[in-house]
Amino acid sequence: MSARTDLKVTDAHLARTAYLYVRQSTLRQVLTNTESATRQHALRQRAIALGWPAEQIIAIDTDQGQSGASAADREGFQRLVAEVGMGRAGIVLGLEVSRLARNNADWHRLLEICALSGTLICDEDGLYDPGEFNDRLLLGLKGTMSEAELHFIRARLIGGPLSKARRGELQIGLPVGLVYDGAGNVVLDPDTSVQDAIRHVFALFARTGSARAVVAEFNAAGLFPVRVRTGAHKGELAWMPLQHWRVLRTPHNPRYAGAFAYGRRRERINGNGKKTFQTLPRDQWIALIPNAHPGYIDWEQHETNQRLLLANATAHGSDRAAGPAREGPALLQGLAICGRCGRRMTVRYHTRRGVEIPDYQCMHKAIQDSGRRCQAVPGAGVDTAVGQLLLDTLTPLALEVALTVQTELETRAAEADALRRQHVQRARHRADLARRRYLSVDPETRLVADSLEAGWNDALRALHAAQDDYDKASAAAAAGLTDEHKARIHALAADFPALWSNPDTPQRERKRMVRLLVEDVTLIKTDRIHLHMRLRGGQTESLTVPIPPKAWQARQTHPDTLAALDRLLDEHTDAETAERLNAAGHRSGEGKPFTPRIVLDLRDSNNLHSHADRLRAKGLLTMAEIAERLGVHPTTIKNWRRAGLLPSHKANDKNERLFEPPTPGDPRLAAQQGSPIKKRVHTRSAPGGAL
User: Fold this and answer.
1) In a 3-state reduction of DSSP, which class is residue 593?
2) Which of 25, 98, 210, 648 is catalytic?
3) Residue 203, CA distances (Å) to 213, 408, 557 in order
């Protein structure tokens, strides 16, 4: 040991602990590369030679089987850094830099902490003080070489597989439905039930255009095959209900289209040292070779599925682009474009008389800049106009639609029946296999026989359950597709307007019909609503729709009804006017029959005079007024009215009456002034009972 080395070790270093770091990269190296472990532990003698007592040397070997590429999962290395940072370590010993760290960030962090705390570093080549420039420069160079060595090792390991992948010859894990044959070629799974299930998923996706709809329809018909990847049953085929994430993975995988693809994901290390996988765009894949092996769909169908999946995904993006058809009543959901700013319009619903009414709104500025919304367009009239245009457009194709609808329903029923039948066949095969195992067992091995008998019983119960499910589903399908129903569907499809307006047609299906013909619809609201539709194939259509009235305007009474009410009030009270309006077929602004209260509200809101006011305007008098004019008691007026001497008119619904004023010298009144009636009245009304 040189004198220069002796000068680096001081009493301050010897007063602290020496830490020996021991690590192997893999568990296999721990078991097989024992000589490397011996060399690392031999550094303890180097520490003793430098002056550290044996009891003051601590070996850290808890990171066995851990790679040095990162410090995230290495508890021993983290402990070492902590001890150095707290000033407890006098020296750190390691066989070489790669044992401590193969990552420059971790290595230089350790050097910096050692320099600050005055800790020495020792490896198989010598002793270093990170606080000195020359030693630190040499240690940094060693760290760089160690990281470069890791890169070279990785490049040599993956160079061969990458070369085979670029030629499409690399054997990698295949999705369910594809297997390798004896010659190493990719072929379809020989199990026809697996093939039928995969094809059924693609058929459902092409028909519904939504992964969620595929899950609902597929699980109603049968189970989906899954290849077990880990555990004791690795490689075996299992059947389970289809899940949403599996549906998304299936159309995304180019292997189902017969294409070899490699490098679709890239491994990244995040800030916590954890591995993450990033999905790359197609132009960054390492290899993509179409038509490399048989597939379930062709490449054109795969590209169509990718465009549909992209459209469904961007429905949740900032632009709110067209997504899958939903259940709401808005016909142009995802297709409406603002005619002012060119962005996608969102849908808002409000309820009017128990019915959901859509409104198309451009909310981008309101959301991003807290400004006013660009425009809001009432959707009821717009949807009606678009639907009518589709009816006019599709009428010549009514017969083709009829045949397509009926064939589609029959195809769906056949596919679902095939899946259910295959499930029964698999259950019957398992039951037969359990039966043969039980019959072939030696009767003397009672425990084995009992176990096999229990398995046979379980398989029989599963077979009966599968058969019952198949019988019920088949009966339901047969009941739903009778000749009568087929004829009814054919009649509806032949008359496409009836199919469109039929209340049994789901709104989601109407939206899918729209998407087959319409690319998008641009909406501009001025004094009217202007629609500019871009149809599939490049054709355009323009429509103009009046702006629907506001809620209070829609509830206004028709002018003809108000005119009839005004005329009737000349001769009738409120209740009588309401009866005659209802008899004539008039209705209020809310579509309700007239009542006296509604007539009263209409009179007040339209400044119409009541029947009583109109009679008063003609000069008719109240009972008190005419009694005062004639100089008699009001009771006398009542008696004269009953006797028919004073003509009167009903003024309101309380049976109050107004009287026509008598003319001077009326002989009827003059004759009655001396009549017994008048005398009796005067007798009763005389004060004090005087005659």
Assistant:
1) coil
2) 25
3) 12, 11, 54
Mapping DSSP to helix (H, G, I), strand (E, B) and coil, where does residue 405 land?
helix
The CA distance from 63 to 60, in Å, is 8
**CA 484 to each of CA 219, 462, 493: distance values in angstroms, whole numbers, following the listed order:** 28, 36, 14
* Cα distance between residue 169 and residue 110, in whole Å: 44
Q: Is the dihedral of CA 374, 375, 376, 379 positive or negative?
A: negative
Residue 376 sits in the same domain as residue 335: yes
Output DSSP code: residue 344.
B
Q: Could you tell me if 64 and 27 lie in one domain?
A: yes
Express each pLDDT in 299-312 by its tens digit.
989 998 888 888 77
Q: At what angle do helices 192-208 and 398-440 cross, to 10 degrees?
A: 150
Cα(643)–Cα(639) distance, integer angstroms: 6
Q: What is the largest CA-CA distance in the chain?
A: 160
pLDDT tens readout for residues 478-514: 554 456 655 665 555 556 677 677 777 778 778 877 7
Tell me how many degrees the CA angle 141-144-150 measures, rounded to the nearest 5: 145
Question: Contact, 261 vs 254, CB < 8 A?
Answer: yes
Based on the domain organization, do 515 and 591 belong to the same domain?
A: no
End-to-end CA, the chain: 159
Q: Which two structure tokens, joined as six digits, stand for 259? A: 């294409």
Which residue(s) pair with 544 in the sheet?
Answer: 530
Beta strand ranges found along 320-401 (DSSP E): 336-338, 346-352, 355-361, 376-378
- Tell me the DSSP string of 190-244: S-HHHHHHHHHHHHHHHHH--HHHHHHHHHHH--EEEE--SSTTTT-EEEE---H
With cut-offs at 50, 70 and 90, classify the pLDDT of residue 395. low
Q: Is 254's pLDDT higher than 90?
A: yes
Domain shared by 456 and 348, yes or no: yes
Rounded to an integer, the average pLDDT of 35-55 is 88
pLDDT of 392 > 80? The answer is: no
CB of 128 within 8 A of CB of 107? no
Q: Which residue has the higher pLDDT, 258 or 498?
A: 258
Structural domains in the chain (count): 5
Residue 170 in 3-state DSSP?
coil
Q: Are 89 and 83 in contact (CB under 8 A)?
A: yes
Q: Which domain holds residue 222?
A: 173-314
Do 152 and 27 belong to one domain?
A: yes
Ramachandran area for residue 688 (φ above 0: left; ψ -120 to 50: alpha; else beta): left
Is residue 25 flagged as an active site residue? yes
The pLDDT, as a whole number, for residue 253 is 92
- Shared domain for 187 and 229, answered yes or no, is yes
